[in-house]
Structure formats: C-alpha cells, structure tokens
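Recap for those who missed Tuesday's class. We walked through two folding examples back to back. For each one, the amino acid string is listed first and its predicted structure tokens come directly after. Nothing is annotated here on purpose, so try labeling regions yourself before you check the end of the notes.
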Amino acid sequence: MQAQAIFQTPGGHYWNSQYGNVYGTLTSAYAFPSKLNLQWAYFQPGGFSGGAAVAADGTLYINTQSGELLAIDPTGKLLWQFKLPQPAVGTPAISADNILYLSDHSGGLLALSTHLAFQWYLPMTGFYEATAGPIIAPAGTILYPLDTEIRAVNADGSLLWQTRSPNQYIYEPLRLTLDGRYVTQLQAAFDLASGELSEFDLRTGQNDAVYAFPAFFSGADARQYVRAGHAVYPDWQFFNPFSLASAEKIGWDGQSLAGLMPQLAGVTPQGQVWFLYGNEYTNTRLVWLAKNNQVQANVRLESTHGRMIGVDALGRVVVCGATQGVTGASCGLWASGASQPQWEFAFPDGGLPPFSGAVAPNRVYLSSADGWLYAIGD
C-alpha cells in the first residue's frame, strides 16, 4: 500500500473520523497553515460532542451534545441544523456517496444523506452506548464501538456482526489494519469478516511495567505498528508468529515519567515516530524519536488534557491542551523534532476539554466541548 493512499478517504473527503480516516493515521495529505491566521469562529450553545468531519466540498459536519447535527460551510456559515433522534457521539463518518453515519447514546447507528434524506436507523437493545464515532471500511462496512461491544453494520443497515470487546468503557475510536483484514481498538484485533477476536501474545519477557498498554496502529509511512510501553514495533504481521523482544524496535527510556504511559503514538509520512503523553491531571508531553532510537525532542507543554489533532503531509503536528485549569485552551503547530512551536493559538473564548479537530487544505479546525469552533488558515 502506498503511503499516499493511507490518508485519503473515499469520495475525496478531507477528514472522515476522529483520527481522520479508516486507518486512524491522523494524517492529512495536505500541509497545515504555516502562519497563524484566525479565519472565523463559531459558537454553539450546549457544546460539541466530538470533532468535525470535512467533506470534499469543504462542508463541516459536527454533532452537538444537545442532539443536533450541524452543517457549516468553509466560511463559517451555518447551512442547516438537524435534530437527531438521539444525541450522537464523536465525529461523523461520510461515505463516498455522501451518506453520513452517526453513532449515538443509545448504541444505535443512523444513516442520512448530506441533503438530510433519511436512509435507515439500526437501533440497539439493552443498556449500551456508543463510545466513539464510526469508521467506514473500503467495502462499505460501518464499524463503531459500544461501551462493551464492537459492532459492524452493512451499508444497507443490516447488522453484520456484534461481538464482546475486552476493552470495557474505552473511549477510543476503531482503526482498520492496512491489509483490511482486522479492525483494532488498542490491543484488541477483530476479524473484519466475522468479528472474531484474534489472540496475539504481546508480552516481551522483559519488564512488563515498561512494555505495558499495547496498541495496534497504522503509520502514515504505510507500515503496520504495535505500541508497547515507550516503544513501537514496525511491520507487525498478524498472520505470522511474532516476538516483540526480537523485532525491530523504535523506543526510548521513559522511566523518568514515573509510570506514565503514552496515550497515543503515531508515525509521520516521513517515518518519524511521535508519542503523546498526559491526561487531565498531568502535563502534556510530546516526544519525537528517530529510527535509531535517538530522542530528537522531549517537550513538556504547559497544558493538561492533551489531544493530538492531526499530522500534515510535512510531518508536522497540531497538539491542543487546557492552559487555565479547564477554562481555557491553546493549540500549537510543532515541526518534527522541534522544541518550540511554529505557531501557538490561544482560544479567545472558551476552551473546555475534551478538544477535537479536523483538517482540510490550508485549514485546521479546532473545537472544544463548550461549543467553540475555530478555523485557522494561511
């Protein structure tokens, strides 16, 4: 698979899930704005429940916590506001034929066109709730996580499979592996065709406290990775026996972080490895690694609630965090290996975490839980 294909979405849409695409690389085929220029701001009372999906025509689709779906044009104008049967969760997904898919608080999945033509609704029985927005596999299967289950739905609205997940109440989007065979959530991998949970032994035989919290992910360099502790292992082959201890490894000694494990890791199109650390209680930390395991930058940001918004075609990242407790926010553009941001944007108003974002050509969209949406462009 070519790296270029990994961060493209069917239909030419620019951003199609919380992590940008079905493979979850968080990577855009375009460059971020090199200079800080606030294009517009939009406020939605009640707040957003996730980030925006950005269609090929530049329209943003975003869910509100009060149960509406908004369509906003690239100039910041509200095109329409649609009341949903149930409040939706996370970021919408858009298919190649411009169908929006929304997972909701009752565990159901709604399909409607970008022109608001109802397609179908697949309900969920029992006490379930979606924990992230859906993703769309190349063949059209829609996948989304529930608090204790993973669900796969055919494009016609019929249930393909539903299976128990070992990850309980994890608010982590799903990702598809590069070969299209598995859908993953952290360390769990499910067969896309059957939903069967595949067992992989990720133990290293070394210090399990260091090699903890494993997670599968796809790099924007067209390589499949598994993260374990403060290291990533490239070229994971799901169909062959695999030993982490003897594999190629790119990592660093994170013992100084007093047991704090990365919340997220990724690889840029150029093959640069990054780790994002931090939570609502600890400061955000961005670590860049070279392929020879050299730490190129280890930056402690003066923020909590850190969130990786996206990675651009040049390997630069945008990271957001709270800067004044939980009442303010700032986001910065960081070049690969840099110890200082290329630009930094402090939210003029609001900024309640969690933060979300989306990417389009020469645009970065930043949103907060308290209803602020900002467009940054050149």
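Example two. Treat it independently of the first, because the proteins are unrelated.
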Amino acid sequence: MPRLPFSAAELGSVLAPLAQAKPLPPAAYRDSAVFELERRELFGRAWLAVARSDELEDPGAFVRAPITPEGVLVARGADLVLYAHFNVCRHRGALVCRAPHGRTEAFVCPYHAWRYELTGRLSSAPGAEGLEGFYAADHGLSSVSVAEWKGFVFVNLAADPPALADALAPIPEHLQRLHLAPLRIGRRVEHDVAANWKLLIENFQESHHFPSVHPTLERITPFARSSSFIADGAWLGGTMELVDEAETVSVDGQRHGRPLLGGTSESDRRKVYDYFCWPNLLLSAQPDYLLTYRIWPLGPDRSRVTADILFHPGAMLDGFDPRDVFEFWDVTNREDREICESQQIGVASEGFGGGRFATSEDGTHAFDRRMAHFYLEHLSA
C-alpha cells in the first residue's frame, strides 16, 4: 500500500461544512502514490463507463477501453452477449489487440498466434497443444464483469462486484425518465488534458467559472440561474436554466427542428441537467441532445477525455446539420481544457497552499468529500 502524502487532519478539513471546508490537499493532484492508489483501488473496483451500446450492436464489434495500460477488450459475441477481457495473451503476456475499436471474428495474438474467441475461450495455441497437462480451457483470456444501462456499457475489474443496478441506485428522477438508450452518436472527439482527472470533475461540478471562462455559455445558461443537487449515491449534479430567448445550447441558441430527448417534460424544455456518475462519467442533458464525457486518468498530471454528442435518432435524417452544436462545444471544451491545465501547473507550485470553496461550489465540495472519505479508508487501513 503506497504511503499517502497527507494526514487524516488535512482530509478532515475537506469534510467540514462548506463554509469552513478546504479543498483536497494539493498533493492529491500531483503525487504518484495518490495516483497509483486511485488507479488500483478506485478505478480498479468501480463500475466504469467504457462505450455506448450502439458501438457494439453487431456480432464481432469490439472496443478497447483504456482502463488499464494494456486496455480491456469489450466485444459483442455471436450470441449477442457482451464479453469483456483483459487485453493480455495468456501465453507470454503480449497485447492481443492494439486497435482502439473494430470488428473481428476472434482475437489473435500477434506474437505467437494464440487465438481467442470473442467469449475469451482459447481455441488455438500453436506450439502448446499436446503438451502434458495443457488444457485450453485453463488459458482463456482473463474475463471481467460487463453490463449495460440506458445504452451505456460499463465494466468492472473487481473479482466480485455489486450488480450495476445496485451501484447506480438511486437514479435521479429526471434521469430515470429520459430515453437515453435509443440515442445515436453524432460525433466523438478524444483529447488528452495535461491535468489531474479530479480537476476535470471538479470543474464540471460548478458554474461559478462561467462568466470568466465561458462567455458564450454564460450568455445562454447564466451562472445565476444554476443550482446543484447533492446525494450520497453514485450521482451528483445540477441544473442550469436557459435564457428566455434560447431553445437549447448552441451557437444561436435554437434547436433548428431537432426533436427533444425522449422523456422530456414540459418543464424540462427550459433546463440543462448535468450529472456526474462516480467515478468517470459526466452527462449533460440539453433539451435536444446529450453530451457525455468519459474521463480516463493516465497519470498524476494527465487525463484522457472521450467526448460524445448524441442525438435523437429522429433528428439524424437527410439534411441533419448539427454544426451549431459542434462549434459551440469545440470552443467551450477548449476553454475548460485550458483552464484545467493552468490549474494543474498552479497546484504544483510552492506558492499554492490550498484554497477555500465559494458558496456556489457545493457540488465540487461534495465530490472532494467523497474523495477524502476514500483516502481516509486507506489511511486507516
């Protein structure tokens, strides 16, 4: 167990009420021992969103999720069941697959051509068949748990994880109503951010930075019209109200005929709902489309973001042109990336001793409290 570079007393100050609390100690964002603990004990045991179901609809479709350095292969079998395996050949440890996604009948190791079916079963082991005591059934890919929820595919590396439905419960009422499974990916963008993954989550949890960082977003969903909701389960989030003249969040604030997300009520038409699902999935439900961000820690000061924009399938017909949405979020996501990278440099400075929370940062405080509890569990252990 790595030694953590902060004390229980420092973490206790994070757990104080918002008006007295301090954020996580600066070392939490830059120390390699902290990162290793998070990688093994948090991301190695939680249900992690890795893909959308429509990426894996057809038999043979697969993705390689960057949960671990080698990645986890998630594939749809010929029986239409999802399977997930560590991307490591059981012969000599070579990576079985380097493609980020694709379609295949089987996985064949490029080193010695051991062949694995999509189920993980070893079907051919050149040079090993016939060896005394060698049984192919004992050398299949190491499998991990996989499950689906509302069109999202989740994986858990733990040996005996709780059911996904139990881990996600209770689901916020608005989110439960939305019909997310039929949505289709309109565009995906992946980028690396030179910042700790927790800074990205904290940034998502508050709108306090809108006036200074996001002038175009502030014009459509003003910080003054935002609110947070705090819960003890897997979910945190908040709402932002649209200005009176806007129909959605886009370059001109108009939907241009795009249908509302299924399950949207009359009162939902004027709001944006943001959700953080512990520990790596961010959702932002606009009236007519859904933003999703999957956050992957790559190092103490580096993260990868997989950003999707999903639409109602009824919108994606002839003449569908969502450039007003894409252009808006290209600018806004770049602004977030730049401010988080600036923050990462600052938290590594000797001149930064730790700050305080603004009264509007209750969502960020709630996330930091959960991280503080996680660290305290391992300090006591």
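Answers for example two:
The chain has nine helices and 17 strands.
The first strand starts at residue 48 and ends at 52.
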